[in-house]
User: What shape does this take?
Amino acid sequence: MTNRSIAIRPGLGELRTVLDALADPSADLPWSEARQFAGRAVPLAWEELKATGAWDKLTPADRAALYWALASGHRLHAGRPPEPAVRRPALTELVRDCAYFATHGEPHRPDRWPEAEGRHEQREAAHHQLAWLHDLRPAWRAEVFHVLDVDPCPVADPGPADWAQPSCVWDALADVQRRIGREESPTGEGGEAVQRFASLPEGWQVECLRRIGRGRQPLPTITEAVEAIDVLPRFGVALRLAPPP
Assistant: This one.
C-alpha cells in the first residue's frame, strides 16, 4: 500500500491503485490489463458513492456523468481495443471522471484526487450554459449547435491543464445572442442536434454541454449519450428518453 492510500476507505484505496495504473503513461500496460482496470474503475467509484451516502446527494448532472463513465468503461473493457491515438485520451478521461466521483466520497481530501481539479467548475459552467440555451427560441437553440458544429471547440488537453481551458460553448451562445440583437435570421441548421438534445434528461444535457465545451462535436456527443443510456440496463439502471418535441 502506498502512502497515498493510507486512511482511505478500502474501496477508495483500490480505486486509487487502479487510477494510478491507468494514469501512468510510462507503465505501458498491456491492453489486457488496462481493459480490466477500465472495467473496474467506475463500478468501484459508484460502489463507494452508494456506501457513503454521497450518491443520494449528487446532482442529476453528476449522476449522468457517472452513468456515462460507466458505459465508457464497459465499452473499453468489452469492446475492441481502441486505436493507440484514442486509447490514452479515453483512459485519461476515465481517470479524471473517477477521481471527481471519489471527491464526493472523500470531500475533505481533494489532494488525494488531483485529477479532479476544475471538474466541478466545468459542471457549473455547463449548468449556466444550459439555462442560457433554454432562454433562446427553438430556432436559435438549433443555431447554437450549428455554430458549434461548423466551428467546434479546440480539443482540450486531456491532462491536468484541461481544467483551465474555458468552454467555447460560451462563445457560441454569445455569438448567437449578438445576432439576435442585430435582428438577423437563423440559418435553419442544427435542427437534428437540438431535437435529439431535447430528448435527453436534463442532467445528461448538462454533461453533453460540458463535453462539447472540451472539444467534442455536438451530434456525435449527443449520440454517445443516447448509446450510454441504452447500455445502462446492463447495470440495473433504466432511463427513458423524452419523446421528440
